[in-house]
Each structure stands twice: as structure tokens, then as C-alpha cells.
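Minutes, project check-in
Item: structure for the 342-residue chain
Input as provided by the requester:
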Amino acid sequence: MIYLNSASHGLPAAATRRAIAAYTAQEAEVGVLEALETVEEKLASVAGLAARLLNANAAQIGFNTTTNAAWLALLQRLPLAGSHVLAAPWEWGDNLRALRHYADATGGRLEILPEDFSAWPAHYRENTAALFLPLVTSVTGRLLPVAEIMSQPRPDGMLTILDAAQALGQIPVDVQALGCDAMVGTTRKWLCGPRGTALFWAGERLGGGATARQLTPTDYNVALRLGLATAIETALEEGIETRRQSIAGLRDHAVNALQNLGLFAQAGQTGALAFTLPEAQAERSFEALAAEGIIIKRPDPAWDEPAAALPPEGAATLRLAANVYNSEADIDAFATILGRSL
């Protein structure tokens, strides 16, 4: 198998899998609560590891099962009822659908911002309660200039909620430098943590440590939390900047490979890249790659990012997302099979 779909789910490293399996075996051997007592110190360290990853205060780190679960929990803490709410056009579809429902139910107003960042301040109002945006877009992997956006004049009461699901583990994420008020992100993608793990950060304007403690479920899967600790430790030891450079090199190699096939790739400073084909051809190519054990993604932009620009009518998007465990040989194999299918 050649796995090129980290933007959906990364492959946990052997050390992460061992941490999960070892604790599960310990639970079976000595009992759940007895096993828990032996790892309390390790569990207490996970927030500190996440804080190092985000350049944050460990007391302001919380955990949940998915990005969406953490995001929805934070949403309930925002003073959005009857307010003006803004969202980037690339905001994740589930988030937008929740915001529309919440705005309709509370007499608020959701406005989708234009793609031109310089035009955003003109849409800020004194009653704008929050701005929602991703750090990296899901479909094309575009890195948004969040720090630049946050440096623009904005109302004092406007909170900024950042979705970093496509960023954690592949690019540096510094919540202090970014200037956001809260951040959420799954850890199963580029960070290669276990499925069912996510983290969030709540800044002082959103209640800080008190919010993080209150929104973190007290009942959770201990084995997965230990696996997450190992995944973060691995990423920190490797160095996020080192990982970024490795992933970027693979992305650039893939861009060149696609260009040699006469295809244009939408690549944006991160590991994911997308390209379009006529729908029937995209289906044939996707199936041809899968038949050879090459795993990529066929996203649904209309569902994933419904407010963003969609592919031309009759075209379908395919997305490639290599991670640190991939190689240029993997990309070459992908390009060979793709070329044969065209």
C-alpha cells in the first residue's frame, strides 16, 4: 500500500500503536482503575506536550474526540445570540451548517466573507461577535495568512476561532503569534495521532484555563490519550519545521509529476494538493490508483467547503497528501499509475 491521504487521516507510527496496545493489555491484566493509577503522571503531561506544540499555556489546553466536538463545545461559550457572525469562505462545511442553524435559532446573522482578505475589515461591525476561519483549507491545503488577518483593525468584542485540523503536525502553529482567541484541531491527520483524539486551546478572552477544564470530558479513552502523547512527543522530537520541509519537498515533487502529465495542481504552502479531472476520468483514475494500493482522496468540495469556489461543472477534484513517512518513490508510483489511467 502507498498511503497518500494524510489530510484525511495520517498513519500512526509504531510507537503510537505500541503505547495504545500496551495500555489496553494492562487494563485487561490488572483492571481499568488499577491501570489508570499507573499512568496518571503520564496523562497529566499531555497538556504540557500540546502546549509546547502550540506555544501555549498548558492550563489553557483541552482535549476532545474530534475537531467538530471541540468546536461545538466552544461554540456554546460564545455570545452569538442575536449577533453578527463572520466566516471565511473556506470554513469547514460542518461548522458552517452549525453556524447557520445557530444563527437562525437565535436571531443572529451569519455572513460569508469574500476571498479577498484586504476586504474583510469592511465587513466588521460593532456587533460582530466572532470570526471563524481555518488555518489551512481542507480541499486544497491553502495556508491562510492568519497573523496578517489578525493584525487588521477589528472590533474589541470580536472573537476569532481558528480551525487548525489541517495544520497540526505539518507546519508550526503558534497561537500567540497567530493572534486568535481559540483554536481547535484533530490530531489524527498530519500529527499521526490515533483516531478519536483532538485538542483545543482557549485564550484568556474565552475564559482560558477555566474553559479548557470545563469543556474537556472527564471520561475519555485513556489508551488513545496515551497514544496521542506519544504522537506529540514524536513530532516534537523530529521538529515541526523539519517535518514541514520534508512534506513540502514531497508536495513539490508531486506538483512536478502532475505537470509532466499535463495537469495543474492547486498547491498552497502545505502538504496537500488538489487537481481536477472530468468526472468520469476522475472516477477511472481514482479506481485505477486504488486497484494498485495507492490511496488518495476524492473530496466533495460542495459539502466540505460549501461557501468556497467550486470546481467547474462536470469536473471532479482529487487530493494527494503525502506525509513524513512517504517518499519520492511513492509519488513516482502514483504518477505512473495516474498517467496510465488518463
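Outcome recorded: The mean pLDDT is 96.
No further action items on this chain.
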